[in-house]
């Protein structure tokens, strides 16, 4: 009997508490979305996915604070406009993931609002490969986009951004990468026979045979990374062995104007390593290079343990700064630059202050983790 009274009392108490809670006004939580990201310069880290949506992480360059991300398709490529207000991505949307048709889409994003402005369908031949800056590019006037294709036959799709449509597919057999010219609907590409070829397209999508350089490099003994940096009227490339190539591409066929080594006579078997292995600061005419020791055949993708600033005029290494796990770099363009490094294996973004008074030594000033499971590409938006 005592047990029954205890149970009844507990039940009455529970009902009373429930009634008290029921009498209180329920205030639902309101979820809001900021219309615009915080102002200030940004860093963009590409987290490419082969199994689902890729994303572009947008991070404040000053505080390394997360501002948001852009969600895109499979195996995305990425490029920024010169004013850093607009971004373009090229990615695949597979209807059945493992088989069936694939739709390739060039998407245009407004950075300030982190929103899609429009989409342009491009050739499904779009190269589904690891991201690199030389696989999606804009013309000098930013009125056209160039998209690298591979089936595995290589070609480049030319997209009229004003009309919002693809106007040409330019065959580039034996060549790979896109390096826009200083003017016009024109780009150069690296070729397996050691040459560069320059293609010109008209506004109505017509093109003729390319202008071909003399042999500039040997793909067997001194292959080049396909990433190139623009330095005025020249393109700068780095070889697997540590040779810097400067190629004039303003008029006519590309021409080699300078070549020098940054590793000759250096002990330890040093060589460039990573993905985006070079970053150029025009204000100081300095090229930053990701370097690793004990280089061997196949180690050209190994992460850097040092970053070397190279004086392009004096043709010499100024300093050697220790870093950890960096595979891609980007640098700001001021006289006192800031360099950003990305560790794609661990998804770590690192910021380095560069001191011109100390031979462009790099000092770590910030680090941000969880950039993604495959984050191999970094851009700076000043």
TrEMBL record:
InterPro entries: Metamine_DH_Hvc (IPR009451), Quino_amine_DH_bsu (IPR011044), WD40/YVTN_repeat-like_dom_sf (IPR015943). GO terms for molecular function: aliphatic amine dehydrogenase activity. It holds the Pfam family Me-amine-dh_H. Residues 1-22 form the signal peptide. It is found in: Periplasm. Its main location: periplasm. Disulfide bonds join 175-191. Belongs to the aromatic amine dehydrogenase heavy chain family. This is Amine dehydrogenase. It comes from Ciceribacter naphthalenivorans.
């Amino acid at each position: 009997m005592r047990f029954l009274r205890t149970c009844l009392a507990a039940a009455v108490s529970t009902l009373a508490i429930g009634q008290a809670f029921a009498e209180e006004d329920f205030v639902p939580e309101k979820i809001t979305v900021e219309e615009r990201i915080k102002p200030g310069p940004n860093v963009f880290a590409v987290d490419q996915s082969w199994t689902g949506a890729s994303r572009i992480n947008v991070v404040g360059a000053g505080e390394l604070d997360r501002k948001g991300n852009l969600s895109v398709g499979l195996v995305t490529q990425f490029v920024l406009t010169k004013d850093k207000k607009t971004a373009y991505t090229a990615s695949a949307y597979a209807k059945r993931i493992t088989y069936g048709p694939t739709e390739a889409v060039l998407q245009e994003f407004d950075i300030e609002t982190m929103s899609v402005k429009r989409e342009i369908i491009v050739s499904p031949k779009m190269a589904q490969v690891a991201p690199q800056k030389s696989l999606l590019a804009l013309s000098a006037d930013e009125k056209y986009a160039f998209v690298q294709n591979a089936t595995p036959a290589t070609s480049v799709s030319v997209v009229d951004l004003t009309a919002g449509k693809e106007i040409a597919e330019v065959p580039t057999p034996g060549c790979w990468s896109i390096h826009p010219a200083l003017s016009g609907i024109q780009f150069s590409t690296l070729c397996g026979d050691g040459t560069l070829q320059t293609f010109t397209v008209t506004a109505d999508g017509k093109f003729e045979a390319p202008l071909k350089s003399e042999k500039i490099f040997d793909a067997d003994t001194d292959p080049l990374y396909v990433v190139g940096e623009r330095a005025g009227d020249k393109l700068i490339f780095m070889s697997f062995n540590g040779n810097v190539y400067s190629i004039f591409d303003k008029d006519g066929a590309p021409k080699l104007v300078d070549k020098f080594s940054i590793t000759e006579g250096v002990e330890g078997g040093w060589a460039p390593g990573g993905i985006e292995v070079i970053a150029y600061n025009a204000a100081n005419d300095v090229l930053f290079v990701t370097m690793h020791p004990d280089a061997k055949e196949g180690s050209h993708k190994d992460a850097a343990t040092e970053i070397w600033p190279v004086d392009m005029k004096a043709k010499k290494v100024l300093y050697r700064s220790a870093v950890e796990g960096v595979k891609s770099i980007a640098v700001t363009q001021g006289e006192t630059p800031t360099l950003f490094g990305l560790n794609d294996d661990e998804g770590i973004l690192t910021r380095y202050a560069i001191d011109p008074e100390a031979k462009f030594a790099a000092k770590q000033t910030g680090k941000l983790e969880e950039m993604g499971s495959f984050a191999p590409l970094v851009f700076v938006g000043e």
